[in-house]
Amino acid sequence: MLSLEKVEVAIQGARILRGVDLELPAGGRLALVGRNGAGKTTTMRAIMGLVPLVGGAIRFDGRDLARVPAHRRTALGIGYAPEDRRLFPTFTVAENVRLPAELLGLPRGELEARLDRVFELLPELRELADRKAGALSGGQGKMAALARALVTGTRLLLLDEPFQGLAPALARRYGEILARLVERERAMALLVSESNPELLIPFVDRVATIERGEIVGLAPAPRLAPP
């Protein structure tokens, strides 16, 4: 489904990604782990077309994403929840969540069905639907960003550092949501980044390690011991 082939990215003349190779099949769950500054966020942004490639290729279902403008990639069924959430603070939670689907011009029935699916998974957001995004806590903002990504991410979901900055109780809740999501959406592929790989082990089947913009390891996710 998703293929990164020798991907190179440079920002202001500095090479950030150095020949990144990744493969993610339909239904695959891949963790991208590494220290801060290793290239995790840049990899996500490259997939979404938010930073230009200086080498290599990114393909989705064999289609060269370089030929797809960044603002049209969600139409392929890709959802993206960035590390810094990027919500519109003067919009309500509901408006932020609905926005990408409305921009895609989805039929109203399809849009409402997707919203129902999202709010069934994240019922706490239904209660916050009329609150301005600027009034959300950091954890609530993470939930809203996840919901927005799920509205378009029917085939591929990208989550960048989803646990970063979350209080323990909210981190547990986010983990519960992810566990339910991967159980329910078996055909959806997931690429999730994190500095601490242990947080992601319950939700993924493989772990790719990135250091200084290079993939230095790829292995099956270790299985957790039963309680």
Q: CATH fold name, please?
A: Rossmann fold
Q: Tell me the name of the CATH class.
A: Alpha Beta
- Please indicate the percent range of residues in DSSP E strands (runs of 2 or more): 25-35%
Cα separation of the termini? 35 Å
- Tally of domains: 1
Please identify the structural class as seen in this structure.
Answer: alpha/beta
Mean pLDDT comes to: 92
The Rg value, from CA coordinates, equals: 17 Å
Order of helices and strands: EEEHEEEHHHHEHEEE
What general outline do the C-alpha atoms trace? globular
Biggest sheet character: 6 strands, mixed
Low-pLDDT segments: none
| Strands in their spatial order, largest beta sheet | 6-7-8-3-9-10
Can you give the helix content as a percent range?
Answer: 25-40%
Number of strands: 10
Could you state the CATH homologous superfamily? P-loop containing nucleotide triphosphate hydrolases
CATH architecture grouping: 3-Layer(aba) Sandwich
Number of separate helices:
6
Overall description:
The protein has a six-stranded mixed beta sheet with strand order 6-7-8-3-9-10, with helices on both faces. Strands 2-1-4-5 form a four-stranded antiparallel beta sheet, with helices on one face. It has a single domain, classed as P-loop containing nucleotide triphosphate hydrolases (Rossmann fold), CATH 3.40.50. The relative contact order is 0.20. Helix 2 runs parallel beside helix 5 and helix 3 crosses helix 5. Helix content is 31%, strand content 27%. It contains six helices and ten strands. The protein is an alpha/beta fold.
